[in-house]
Structure formats: structure tokens, C-alpha cells
Amino acid sequence: MKKYLTHKIFEIIRELEDKPSFVIGGFVRDLIIGRNSKDIDIVVLGSGIELAKKVAKNIGKNTKISIFKNFGTAMLRYGNYEIEFVGARKESYKRNSRKPMVENGTLEEDQKRRDFTINAMAISLNKNNFGKLIDPFNGINDLKEKILKTPLEPEKTFSDDPLRMMRGIRFASQLNYKIEKNTYNAISEQKNRIKIVSKERITEELNKILMSKKPSIAFKILYNTGLLKIIFPEFHRLKGKKIINNVGHKDVFFHTLEVIDNVAKKTSNLWLLWAALMHDIGKPITKKFQNNIWTFHGHEVVGEHMVKQIFKNLKLPTNEKMKYVKKLVSLHLRPIILSKDIVSDSAVRRLLFEAGNDIDDLMTLCEADITSKNETLVKKYLQNFKIVRKKLKEIEEKDKVRNFQPPISGEIIMETFNIQASRNVGIIKNSIKEAILDGLIKNNYEEAHEFMLKKAAEIGLNV
Q1: Is 364 left (phi over 0), alpha (psi -120 to 50) or beta?
Q2: Per-residue pLDDT reduced to its tens digit, 45-99
């Protein structure tokens, strides 16, 4: 394993000849599988804080240390790496909390408390056996087999710290690994323990799942183990399809997973991925069977309104990020409608105005939303989307309507006609905006001013 220990920090620790020290956990796993990692965990048979101080002094250059005395840990940055030092420990848990009671322990006891065997491997940083792999649970073999399993009994592992269930499912998605049968069954059995975990920690794992290469892997496991129903019931309700008079509809849950995967192939924009997840969240509420067909009329409006409560429930930020997701959920059908029909300038202008700077993300979402198994239909829609994109570019270059403000303000209207703020001011201002979007006038002051005079005359206002 010496060949993997190329970072300068390992040489510094070896030369210090301090207490027995080891690099452990995810960094070791990622070294072996060739995955990039910038977080290094060092465990020492002694004080992690004291070792961190000695390392920092050796590095020099006024290296700053963050010390967390309550946890017995210290952290420093070295180049692009974040390095955490902690003393080896053993843990025990109370039934109603995932916060452990910690005691000093041996390396073996420290490895036993790890979540999965692939994260329990350690490499010695000591002079006498530098580079030796310490792998009591055969994690190296599980890496080769691409299997996730716990070092100890999975029921106890997940009962002690239920967040480990979410982490395991996230690893399955990030690494494309299988969860070993007993470990998988234990997640199902212990699913209700997730209720003692804070929403923030759960959502942190959901965010990481969405940022993985194929998020659907994790969401399928979350559904099948029963965790999804507990942590995200609105998403769980998308699952299933109903048949009446031999007429069925597609399973919205599986469709949504396809859309998320499609978006994940194109971007790492977390909030666009959340928009993909929620784009059809309003369908269960709006589902109706009428005239022998299934309809979901208005699901984009219902979905937009659901976003705020879901963000609150999951402790996601209720700021501009939420407004962005709401906007994309609200508008996600518009480009699809345009792609089916002859595209008018007016329709494109209105879409540009409403989507503003998020138009490109909206188009990415809509293209990802084409999941039909009919290849001819998919090809047709995607070709039409190319036409829509081209039209968007042409209209924007010609009319500059993205995020535009009408060239005639309310103040100009009031001054021109010597009136106070009133309903008539709103009518004229809105009429100018609509005339520009409909292409009746160009987006400039001269044509807007002339239109203002005509509209004012219609409602009895004169200069």
C-alpha cells in the first residue's frame, strides 16, 4: 500500500515517530479504487489534537488548526486537502439518540464502529510498518466485489446510528455497488429508527444522492426498504399506476427517476436536480379519469405550490434556490407544448420573459422529461426542442425580452396624463408589456410611448 501514500502529510506523520497513527476510512477506500478524495482522516492511538499540533508545527507557514475539544478532534488544511485527526475510540449508544458515548479505544475497536467494511480499512503511517493495510473485515474483497456490508451485525449498526442506512444507500448510488442481502434486510427492519435523525442530516444525504452519477439507484432502494415513505412521503406517493377500462397511465415515480438520471448526465446543478425530482410532484393530487383517458390537468400549478412546504419539511433553503425550483416546476410544460406545435414568436417571447436567465436550465429539464419508449416520438420532440432553442436565441437577440422591464414606467404614465397611482396606470403598463410580448410593438421607448397614448385614449385618458 506504500504506493498510495504519496501525499506529503503521510511522510510528515511517519517522521514524527509519535503515537501509532493510521490513515483510515473513505480516503483509503478511494485510494484503492482510484477515486478522487480531498478529505483525509487520521486516527491515532492517543490524542488526535496533540498530533495535529505537531503536524501543523512541522508544516509551518502559520498553519491554522481548528480544534473541537468536545469531540477530541482537530482539523487543518494542507494544500487542497482537509485533514482530520482523532484519537482511536470505541462507542456505545442510548436507544433514543444517535450521539454516541465515546471512550478511548484500540485501532480494532475504532474499526468496529465504522459504518461499512469498505470504510473500515486503515493503512499504517508508522516507520516500522509504513504502508501496511489493516483490514480485519476483509473490506478489500468487498471493494473488489462491489459490495456494501457492515463490519458488525447490521441491525445493531443501523439501530445505533440510523443515518448509516442513508449513507449506505448513498454509497450504492455514488459507487454503483450492491448492498449485501443481510445489510439490505436490516435497513428495512430498522427503517423507523431514521425518525431520530435530524431532517438536516437526512437532506444532506439526499443532496449527495442527487449529485451522484445515477441517483435512481438510491431512490429505488429508499422506496423498496420503506425509508422513502418516512423521509419524503410526497415523492413516495408518485409510485404506482392505476388501470380503468384497460386504460392505464405510466408510473410517475419511475418516470421521475428517468428524468433525474437524464438531468444528472448533463449537469451537477443541485437545484436543477431538485426541480427534476419535483417536476411532477403534483400529479397524484390532480389525477383524474375522464372520457376514458387519464389527466393531470394543472399538476404544474399544484406542484409549484407544494415546493415551499416540501422545502420547509426537508429543511432546504427557502430563499432564491426555492424560488428557482418553483419556477421550473411551474414552467416545465411550456417548452413541451411549444415542441408539439408550430412555434410562434409570441409564445417564445412569453417563455423567455417568464423564465428569464433560467431558460437554459428549463430547456435541459424539458429535454430530460422526454422518456417515451417510442423512439420515433422521442426523436421528433428532441428535434422540435432544437427548433425551440434556435427560436429562443433568435428572439432574444432581436427583442431582448429576457428579464426585460417595459420601456414605459408607471411614473412616466402618471406624469404624462397628470394622474395619481391608480388602476388605469396598471392597465396601461400591462398593455404595453403584452403588446411587446405579442410582437405588436418593438421593445423600445418610441413605439411603447405611441402605444401608451392610444391605449390611454381607449380608456378616456388624454394628455
Answers
A1: alpha
A2: 999 999 999 999 988 878 899 999 878 899 999 988 999 999 998 876 666 666 6
Digit-coded pLDDT (tens) for 16-45: 877 899 999 999 999 999 998 899 999 999
**Does the residue 170 lie in any domain?**
yes
pTM exceeds 0.70: yes
Contact 115, 167 (CB under 8 A): yes
Flag whether 271 is in a domain: no
Domain that holds residue 7: 2-143
Residues 134 and 14 in one domain: yes
**Is 90 exceeded by the pLDDT of residue 258?**
yes
- Asked whether residue 359 is assigned to any structural domain, the reply reads no
Beta strands at 73-78 and 65-68: parallel, antiparallel or unpaired: antiparallel
> In a 3-state reduction of DSSP, which class is residue 77?
strand
Task: Count up the domains in the chain and report the number.
Answer: 3
Residue that finishes a domain, picked among 181, 205, 231: 231
**DSSP labels, 180-240:** PHHHHHHHHHTGGGGGGS-HHHHHHHHHHHHTSS-THHHHHHHHHHTHHHHH-HHHHTT--
Report whether 340 contacts 369 (CB < 8 A): no
